[in-house]
Amino acid sequence: QVQVVESGGGLVQPGGSLRLSCAASGSIATIYAMGWYRQATGMQRELVASITSGGATNYADSVKGRFTISSDNAKNTVYLQVNSLKPEDTAVYSCNVYGRFVGGGTFSSWGQGTQVTVSS
Length: 120
What we know:
Blueprint: E1 2-7, E2 10-12, E3 18-26, E4 28-39, E5 46-52, E6 57-59, E7 67-72, E8 77-82, E9 91-101, E10 106-110, E11 114-118
Parallel strand pairs: 2-11
Antiparallel strand pairs: 1-3, 3-8, 4-5, 4-9, 5-6, 7-8, 9-10, 9-11
């Protein structure tokens, strides 16, 4: 059993910033990668940024230079610093954790998401 909990979303004006957090817990032996996704109303979920346990990162073109993903492997936590926010960044931001259970077997677990709203 793996639990994933996001936090840090909120209402912010264009140009503002937030720091989103995602913490994984439970029967985790190894985390291979963690990623942030977002889904705007009426749109499909898209990958925003991801990071492997080794520190390799990947970003969607739309957020490069504005968003930064980082992780604290000891805490099984990943962060997403979101800067220079635009109205089109408005979405539910969800965290995915891909790893291996204690006792064997892989998992891909999602949190419930945190709402980011960018509006003046």
